[in-house]
Each structure stands twice: as C-alpha cells, then as structure tokens.
TrEMBL record:
<keyword id="KW-0234">DNA repair</keyword>
<keyword id="KW-0804">Transcription</keyword>
<comment type="function">
    <text>Component of the FACT complex, a general chromatin factor that acts to reorganize nucleosomes. The FACT complex is involved in multiple processes that require DNA as a template such as mRNA elongation, DNA replication and DNA repair. During transcription elongation the FACT complex acts as a histone chaperone that both destabilizes and restores nucleosomal structure.</text>
</comment>
<dbReference type="InterPro" id="IPR011993">
    <property type="entry name" value="PH-like_dom_sf"/>
</dbReference>
<feature type="compositionally biased region" description="Basic and acidic residues">
    <location>
        <begin position="634"/>
        <end position="645"/>
    </location>
</feature>
<dbReference type="GO" id="GO:0035101">
    <property type="term" value="C:FACT complex"/>
</dbReference>
<keyword id="KW-0539">Nucleus</keyword>
<dbReference type="InterPro" id="IPR048985">
    <property type="entry name" value="SSRP1_C"/>
</dbReference>
<feature type="compositionally biased region" description="Acidic residues">
    <location>
        <begin position="474"/>
        <end position="496"/>
    </location>
</feature>
<protein>
    <recommendedName>
        <fullName>FACT complex subunit SSRP1</fullName>
    </recommendedName>
</protein>
<feature type="compositionally biased region" description="Basic and acidic residues">
    <location>
        <begin position="532"/>
        <end position="544"/>
    </location>
</feature>
<dbReference type="Pfam" id="PF17292">
    <property type="entry name" value="POB3_N"/>
</dbReference>
<dbReference type="GO" id="GO:0006281">
    <property type="term" value="P:DNA repair"/>
</dbReference>
<feature type="DNA-binding region" description="HMG box">
    <location>
        <begin position="545"/>
        <end position="613"/>
    </location>
</feature>
<dbReference type="GO" id="GO:0006260">
    <property type="term" value="P:DNA replication"/>
</dbReference>
<feature type="region of interest" description="Disordered">
    <location>
        <begin position="458"/>
        <end position="551"/>
    </location>
</feature>
<keyword id="KW-0238">DNA-binding</keyword>
C-alpha cells in the first residue's frame, strides 16, 4: 500500500463556505492547503479520534474529529475512493472509517448533542445537521428559546445568519434548560467579549489601512482597534501572516497583518492591517500580568517589563500571541541598496518587496502574491517612457497584476531574483529545469530559519555594543522636523525618495543645456570643414574594402551566442563586460590563434586596398574631366539666358502703354534695379571664371535705352 494519498480539487467547509485546495494523507497525518490563502491545516495522526464517510452535496465527504474536539470537513470525493481511504485509515491510523448517512425525513424536532466543538441535531441515531460552534458569533436567550447568530461570510453567495431552537420546559427543579443550552454554546463559540483588562495597550498608532490613528488593546484571544469613529475586534484565529518591512527611506517600518476573513467597514473589506512606525520611536512596556503568568503562557518569548523600538515591541507581542513567524525581506537588494522597488500599481505609487516565498506590495491597495500561485511573470517595456519598465505577474487562476514605472536600473536585480526563484518568465518562454523546488504543501511563510529572530538578535548585539561605547553619535540620524503622523506622509516620502533622482536628472539636463550653445558656436565657425567632411562621407565608395577586425573582435563574434546561452537574459553592457573578463582570462596560446587570424585579415585588406586604389584613380580622373565640362556648359547657358532677358526688357511693349503712368513709372524703377543687380553679378562671374561672356557695356547700353 502507498504511504501517501493525494487528492486535488477537494473542498474544505469553513464558516459556511467551501474553500478549494489540495489534500494529502500520509503516515504522519493529514495536510490540507488552501489554494486561495495558502493556509495549511496539519492534523497529526496521533490526534485523530474518528473518521466519518457520508454523502454530501458535492459527492461524498470526509469528516475528521480530533481528540481535542476540533472538526474538519472535506468534500469532493468520488464514491469509488471509499475503499482506498478505508484501507489507508486502517493501516496507518488504526481507525475504522464509518459510513453515516444524514437523516432526510424533514422533521424539525429532535435531540441536540454537544460533542467537542460541534452541535449536532439528531433524529434518533441519525444526524440532520451539524453546526461548528466556532461559527457562532452571538447567543441570546428568551422564554424557552435560544437564538444562535453566525459570522457573515462574504465569499458565500448565501449565508446563514441565525437559527432558533425551541427548548421545552422540564420538570427538574433548579435547572433551566435554556440557560444550560446557552452555556454549552458560549463555552465553545467564537464570541468576542472584552471582559477583563487588556494585556497591554499601544496608544495612537498610525494605521494606513484602515486609515487613521488607533489605540490597540491586546487581549488574550483577540486584538481590539479603537479609533475615533470605528472599532474593530480581530480574533487571533483570523490572522494568516505577519510582515515586518523596512521603508525605502530607512527611517520608517511597515508592520503588516494579513487577515482572513477580513475586517469590514460598511461595504469595504480590509484584508490587510498596515501600521506605520518611525524607527526613532521608543517605548517601555509593562504587561498586565504577573511574572509567573507571563512565563507560563509565553514560555520566555515575552517578559513582564520590556523596552525598545515601538515597532519591535508591537511585532514581538503579536508574534507571541498569534504564534506565527514574522516574514521579513530576504536577500534581495535593489539598485539603490534598499530591499524594495518603487513602482505603481493601478493609480497609486508604492513599494514592491520580493520575499523568500512571494511578493508583497504596500500599500494602496496591499497585494500579497505567493510563488506557488504564480503561473508566470513578464518584463514589459514602459508605455510612456523608455526609462522605466513594467513587471507583470499572472496567477494560475488567471488574475493579472501589473507593477509599472519601475526604474530601468532595477531590471538586472529583479531579473536575477526571479531567475533564482525559478519562476517562469514569459519573455524567455518555459524552459526545462525551471520548476519550483519548494514543497507544494509547505506553508508559504514557513522557512527553515526564522529570519526575523536572527535579525532581532543582530540588532540586539549592535545595541549592546553601542551602549558600551560613547553616545556621541546617538542623534545623528534623528530629524526633528520629520513628523510621521501627518496625513501627507506618503506623498512627502515619495518626493523625498525621488529627490536625488530628479536632481541628478535636472543636473544632467542643465549640463546638456550648457553644452548646446558651445556646440552651435563650433558649427558656425567650422561650417566649411564640416561640409567637406559630410561630402566626403556621402561620397564614400560602398565597394571599398572594409577594415579588418582585431583579434578580440574576431573572438567576440565567434563566441557571442555561446555567452548569451550561458547567461540567459544578459544585457548588452553586461555581455561586453563578461566578454572582456573571459578574454583577459584566456591563455596566451589561445590568444595567439586569434592574433594569427587577425594578421591574415589585415594582409587580405592591404592587398584588396592596393587593387582598389589602382582602379579608383582611373575612375576619379574620368569623373573630374566630366565635371569640368559640365560646369563650363552650365556657365555658357547661364550667360546666354541673362543676355536674352536683358534684351527683352529693353524693348518697348505695346501693352504697357495702355497702363497708367504710375504703374509704368514703377515698372521702370523695378526693371532698372533688376538690370543693375544682374550686371554686377555678371561682372563678378566674368572676373572669377574668365569664361566667354558678352561685355558689360552692351548690357549698360541696353539698360540705358530704356
């Protein structure tokens, strides 16, 4: 028998909705991974108490009960898979997979049984329906009546809001069946009641989503956000992931809490809670518990009295209560040395963080994309300018995310990161060996090491060293005018981060503007020699032999494709650098081979040039003679045309006599001025060229006759 069984397209029932995912049964236990959220449910084999096979709406389902009372339901099995599952349970879990059908009589009276986290309404021995008590948000009682209210599920098309049970009175004295029913429900229900004092309170924290300033009260089972307008109570069971991300300006930190189901404000759903901290803010924190309780509950992860940076204290408390690792950026470093990339998503500018197992974009709207849900990525040219590019991600569900306006300098770093993570790149096409190496059933944030813990240890060591040293430079990085609480922080930070880039580009433009007039002055002075150069370039013979290549260029042309194949996606500049390194590292024997080829090419060129120069001389002499003849002919025809024009102007016209005196007087002045200018130009031509032309006296006499 196989040690593992795997099932695709299995649905887990959670709070009234069916979540698609993958189920794997092994000797160690049962693992289900949600395709949408990436959340992993891991049930150890030793915890399994009962397995039930039954017919459900989506075919057949499997219900698993654990020894601590938790219930897990998985639907989407085929009837033929019962035997395989039954044998597997007997062999590895030593459990009988019982077949129990639901009662479909339609009766509305029966018996209620409480078993662990489950309320079962039975008729006889058959269950009619079951209610996981963790879905109950409120329980109210009336006369002989108990009302259960449920958490609203946004993903389900139809959501069950409440169920009412009629509880008949009993003859037993001192026992109220309604209150007993309600207490059984409330003991297991997910009812958030702010009873007792908070463990600790963080005052006036800046929250980006939902926007505002909130007091955060930390309770043992939930988080309470108290603002001026809205209040949110967030159970720790709804927290999926925790992220701690440094801002690009190195002065602030983002603390991101991923939630499922999200918190609601009217019709708006917030899947992420994003807090913004300044690195300069410190706090001394005292937990509202005695030292024994702190040690017993948190096992050394927290102490009663703590002090340090505000962001560090919040993240440390949340990590201990939620019992999840904090995800921090991995080894990626951008062009500017930051661990993020400035880009735009939809209409807003933000920061994209490449993580060890995914990407996260903050902050409006926040987006988290895991590597295991990415189908491929694409590097596209920017639509408005060539100084930036777009980074596109398409998931296996067909959703596309486009992060635009990324600086061109970030391309190499981002491409290397994507290539190292073995993601499919659309531009290059799918290649063999590019499959993801990580486990499909592994949690998307469970790394082999805790990067956040290591980082905190390093920072602690640095702080201890600084404390031992003198505190002269303690205020070097503080900025009194900086106020992280202002509403326009995001805009200010964007302009601050781009200030260097804009100033450098402005300096570059100013340099160009200064150089432009100098270039123009050179053009005016050296106009004639530049024209001659252009004429010589235009008159370059295409049949002339080409200059021979050097030994390096011959080698590069022969090995360019090989370098490209060894380094896919390499840019032109990087290719030339790589080629230079390879050429330097080459042995003398191999270089001599290319030197011989270059020497042979040079000899062939010299031989071809001798043959070309002999033929070109005879051709050039012929062309010079023909040019001289053409010039003489053009000058002669020009002189004849001017002579005829002058003679025709001197003759009296019969038509002009009919015109007015003013017009005839005007035309005489116009004609005389034309003739004088033509005569002067003709004199200059005759003096310079010495060509045969009519004497200027004849022209003067002709003009005088007018």
């Amino acid at each position: 028998m196989a040690d593992t069984l795997e099932f695709n397209e299995i649905y887990q029932e959670v709070k009234g909705s069916m979540n698609d995912g993958r189920l794997r049964l092994s000797r160690q236990g049962v693992i289900f991974k949600n395709s949408k959220t990436g959340k992993v449910d891991n049930i150890q084999a030793s915890e399994l108490a009962e397995g039930v096979w039954r017919r459900v709406a989506l075919g057949h389902g499997l219900k698993l009960l654990t020894k601590n009372g938790h219930v897990y339901k998985y639907d989407g099995f085929r009837e033929s898979e019962f035997d395989k599952l039954s044998d597997f349970f007997k062999a590895h879990y030593r459990l009988e997979l019982a077949e129990k059908d639901l009662c479909v009589k339609g009766w509305n009276w029966g018996t209620v049984r409480f078993g662990g986290q489950l309320l079962s309404f039975d008729i006889g021995e058959q269950p009619v329906f079951e209610i996981p008590l963790s879905n109950v948000s409120q329980c109210t009682t009336g006369k002989n009546e108990v009302t259960l209210e449920f958490h609203q599920n946004d993903d389900a098309e139809v959501s069950l809001m409440e169920v009412r049970f009629y509880v008949p009175p009993t003859q037993e004295d001192g026992v109220d069946p309604v209150e007993a029913f309600a207490q059984n429900v409330l003991s297991k229900a997910d009812v958030i009641q702010a009873t007792g004092d908070a463990i600790c309170i963080f005052r006036e924290l800046q929250c980006l989503t939902p926007r505002g300033r909130y007091d955060i009260r930390i309770y043992p089972t939930f988080l309470h956000l108290h603002g001026k307008t809205f209040d949110y109570k967030i159970p720790y069971t709804t927290v999926l992931r925790l992220f701690l991300l440094p801002h690009k300006d190195q002065r602030q930190m983002f603390f991101v809490i991923s939630l499922d189901p999200p918190i609601k404000q009217g019709q708006t759903r917030y899947h992420f809670l994003i807090l913004l901290f300044s690195k300069d803010e410190d706090i001394s924190l005292t937990l509202n518990m005695n030292e024994e309780e702190v040690e017993k509950r948190f096992e050394g992860r927290l102490t009663k009295n703590m002090s340090g940076s505000l962001y560090e204290m919040v993240s440390r408390v949340m990590k201990a209560l939620v019992n999840r690792k904090i995800t921090v950026p991995g080894n990626f470093q951008g062009h500017s040395g930051a661990q993020c990339i400035t880009c735009s998503y939809k209409a807003s500018s933000g920061l994209l963080y490449p993580l060890e197992r995914g990407f996260i974009y903050v902050h409006k709207p926040p987006v988290h994309i895991r590597f295991d849900e990415i189908s491929f990525v694409n590097f596209a040219r920017g639509t408005t300018t060539t100084r930036s590019f777009d980074f596109e991600i398409e998931t296996k569900q067909g959703t596309q995310y486009t992060f635009s306006s990324i600086e061109r300098e970030e391309y190499g770093k981002l491409f290397d990161f994507v290539n190292a993570k073995k993601l499919n790149i659309k531009n290059r096409g799918l290649k063999e060996g590019m499959k993801q190496s990580y486990d499909e059933y592994a949690d998307s944030d469970e790394d082999q090491h805790d990067a956040y813990l290591e980082r905190m240890k390093e920072e602690g060591k640095i702080r201890e060293e600084n404390a031992n040293d003198s505190s002269d430079g303690s205020g070097e990085e503080t900025d009194e005018s900086f106020n992280p609480g202002e509403e326009d922080d995001d805009v200010a930070e964007e302009f601050d981060s781009n200030a260097s880039a804009s100033s450098s580009s402005g300096d570059g433009d100013s340099d160009r503007d200064e150089k432009k007039p100098a270039k123009k002055a050179k053009i005016v002075k050296d106009r004639k020699p530049r024209k001659k150069q252009l004429e010589s370039k235009k008159g370059k013979d295409p049949n002339a032999p080409k200059r021979p290549m050097s030994a390096y260029m011959l080698w590069l042309n022969a090995n360019r494709e090989k370098i490209k194949s060894d380094h896919p996606g390499i840019s032109i500049t990087d290719l030339s650098k790589k080629a230079g390194e390879l050429w330097k590292a080459m042995s003398k024997e191999k270089k001599e081979e290319w030197d011989r080829k270059a020497e042979d090419a040079r000899r062939d060129y010299e031989k071809a040039m001798k043959e070309y120069s002999v033929g070109s001389k005879s051709e050039s002499s012929k062309t010079e003679r023909s040019k001289k003849k053409k010039k003489k002919q053009e000058k002669q025809t020009k002189g004849r045309v001017e002579k005829k024009g002058a003679a025709s102007k001197s003759l009296p016209s019969t038509k002009s006599s009919a015109k007015s005196m003013s017009e005839s007087f005007k035309s005489k002045e116009f004609v005389s001025s034309d003739e004088s200018s033509s005569a002067e130009s003709k004199k200059e031509d005759s003096e310079e060229e010495g060509a045969a032309s009519p004497p200027p006296s004849s022209e003067d006499s002709a003009s005088g006759s007018d």
